[in-house]
Write a structure and sequence with these properties.
The protein is an alpha/beta fold. It is built from 11 helices and 15 strands. It binds adenosine-5'-diphosphate and magnesium ion.
Length: 299
């Protein structure tokens, strides 16, 4: 598999704080790569390093097969379409006027601009001032600006932040269709929900470290499924000091491996708790995400 972005030990230190810690990213070509992590986990700093907007403290970056350093960054950065933090654009100008500025700055053709505007479906709104746009429309204008030069790689920092479900759905459809056309899209979010259904590969940051990278199903495989114990007398089981949650069937326990399960069943049988059945159930993706990143700081 070829990778459009790779990093080796990518690190950023601010003062005495390591905010991005030894990342080995692998972003496969033509996918939507969901870059997840709680607020403050280092997503924006990482993306800014990929775009040469922030200089790494240590480590290497390769983008589209080229090693990036401070000498050649002016050649590599224009190959990436990007949207970092709040959407760009002048509020008092119309969408069309904003795109005209980008067209002159970047040296685009009219056809490229029209195609980008059509792709984000803003064609009917180009003569309105951008300050009258909804947040979702502003994000789409930002994406049109990033898309217009037809990059093979898009890096989008929290493009769904603050959007309503319909707006998120629109961005999701747009990014998935771009990936279908062969554009690699790296998209960050602090909310798993917002990227889960568009991303085919996930990279998860927790306190600056890459705590997971792979597909959604690999993420599931990482976690021990919960255990459901069917019993008509859950109170007696709880009285034995088990840490378990009550569920309609009886009890639900987290993080028990094979040996722990055998011990549990032995204990219950020993104390004459009726065990009608024991089975495994998957944790939700949200729960797995929380386990990996820690429960604090998510909002
Ligand atoms: N220029 C900077 N100087 C010092 N600390 C910074 C700077 N930029 C970001 N940080 C810190 O680095 C950490 C990661 O920030 P950031 O990359 O913005 O995280 P995220 O995008 O995941 O919310 C935060 O604790 C933030 O306060
Ligand atoms: Mg950020």
């Amino acid at each position: 598999m070829s990778h459009v972005i790779t990093t080796e030990g990518l690190t950023k230190v601010y003062g005495s704080r390591t905010v991005v810690d030894s990342l080995d990213l692998r972003v496969p070509e033509g996918c939507v790569y969901g870059f997840l992590g709680p607020n403050g986990s280092g997503k924006s700093t990482t993306m800014k390093m990929l775009l040469s907007l922030v200089r790494p403290s240590r480590g290497g970056i390769s983008v589209l097969g080229r090693p990036v350093d401070h000498r050649n960054r002016h050649e590599v950065a224009p190959l990436i379409g990007s949207l970092i933090e709040s959407p760009p654009g002048y509020g008092h100008l119309t969408g069309r006027e904003n795109m005209a500025i980008v067209r002159r700055m970047v040296g685009l053709t009219d056809r490229q601009v029209e195609h980008a505007v059509a792709t984000v479906r803003l064609g009917d709104h180009m003569d309105r001032p951008v300050r009258a746009y909804s947040l979702g429309m502003k994000q789409r204008l930002g994406i049109a600006m990033a898309l217009a030069r037809e990059p093979r790689l898009l890096v989008l920092d929290e493009p769904t932040n603050g959007l309503d479900p319909a707006g998120i759905e629109e961005i999701r459809d747009l990014l998935v269709s771009l990936a279908d056309e062969g554009v690699t899209v790296m998209v960050s979010s602090h909310l798993l929900d917002e990227v889960d259904r568009m991303a085919s590969v996930l990279g998860i940051l927790g306190r600056g470290r890459l705590v997971f990278q792979g597909t959604r199903s690999e993420l599931f495989d990482r976690s021990t499924p919960d255990l459901i114990v069917d019993t008509s007398e859950p109170e007696r089981a709880l009285a034995l000091g088990l840490s378990a949650a009550r569920v309609p069937e009886g009890l639900r326990l987290t993080g028990l491996g094979d040996d722990g399960t055998a011990d549990l069943v032995r204990l219950l049988v020993h104390h004459d708790v009726p065990v009608h059945g024991v089975r495994r159930v998957r944790r939700s993706l949200e729960e797995v995400f929380m386990d990996l990143t820690g429960h604090e700081g998510l909002s």
